[in-house]
Amino acid sequence: MQSFPLSFAMFILRKSSSTLSLMTKIVHHILINYGYVSGLTNNVADLILSNHNMKNILFLFLITACLSVKATEIKPDFIVSANGSGNFKTVQEAINAVPDFRNKITVIFIKKGVYKEKLVLAASKKNVKFIGEDLKETILTYDDYNQKKNIFGEEKGTSGSSSFYIYGEGFSAENITFENSSGPVGQAVAVWAGGDKLIFNNCRFLGFQDTLYTYGANNRQYYYNCYIEGTVDFIFGASTAWFESCTIFCKKAGYITAASTADTTKFGYVFNKCKITGDAPESSFYLGRPWRPFAKVAYLNCELPELINPLGWNNWGKESNEKTTYYAEYKSTGNGADANKRVSWSHQLSENDYNTYTLENVFQGWIPTQK
Predict the structure, then answer these.
(1) What is residue 371's predicted lDDT score, i.e. its pLDDT?
(2) Catalytic: which of 46, 144, 233, 279?
(3) Torsion-angle region of 139 (φ positive above 0: left; ψ -120 to 50: alpha; else: beta)
(4) Nearest in space to 69 (alpha carbons), one of 153, 2, 151, 149
(5) Could you tell me the residue range of the domain that residue 171 belongs to?
(6) What is the reported pTM?
(7) Which residue among 279, 327, 353, 367 sits deepest, i.e. has the most Cβ atoms within 10 Å of its Cβ?
(8) Has 353 been annotated as catalytic?
(9) Do 31 and 52 fall within a single domain?
(10) Which member of 210, 263, 279, 353 is catalytic?
């Protein structure tokens, strides 16, 4: 099947009338999850969209076409199975088998099982795609943590604690659970997301402190329909990351984000239509605190429960951070969403400000797509 660009789909989303709003959401979901198509220019799109009936026909065609290429129907290049029924028994063996700097997508299908491996996807392993057989039963895990000793008797540190290191550009994953199983022992990273143009679709990130490390100021990452849990600073780092329709689970007490956004980066973390939940006590969690002075985080149309502290944001003990960070919300809902109680140095976005938060703007022209 020939493919359409997601940028064209996003163009449709911007141009469509309100009567097609539900259809556009469905098409957006399908295009993100199942594929995309290429070849239509904005001029052609304008011509098609000028006719209401043609718009309906086009949307129906897109839905039908995209449903025909479900990710689970993609033929994998390698199959990983712990019982030996695939090409490899371990995930790292499959990664190692990917040709260096391959321009095409290499699909690795991972069957159900708990794979206890400390994984590294090198920068030379580009465009690798993981597909899990089952979200909750395909688990990639390890148990290193900050104070755990290496073979020289030295502490591994936060960076050395990760269960999975991702450096390769264009990596994507779906239906996978990523875990650091060391428990509440301090910093313990489940995923070091250190590559550009990363996409995670329907994945889980399990841990306590420092669960997800979005590493690298020049990296762009997209998380769709994911579950991320933790305690202190459990989403942290310098990357530009967009979290769409994700569930953020807060355990015990702490801070959801600890962004270290570069001063030259316009956007940092964007949470759009996410649900914040958890078993933490009332007012025990902040939306974020700045790991570095120019941290940037925005919550757009998110559901915030009573476990969110009314102040919303924390300055990490440095009043100077209040002048350099950019913390914002737009139409937060729920018992933890009272804008009148937020710290004075945070922002409630205007409609015009909110409209600048598009995938194209945030990712500087890159539109994430599932391939």
Answers:
(1) 53
(2) 233
(3) beta
(4) 2
(5) 75-362
(6) 0.83
(7) 327
(8) no
(9) yes
(10) 210
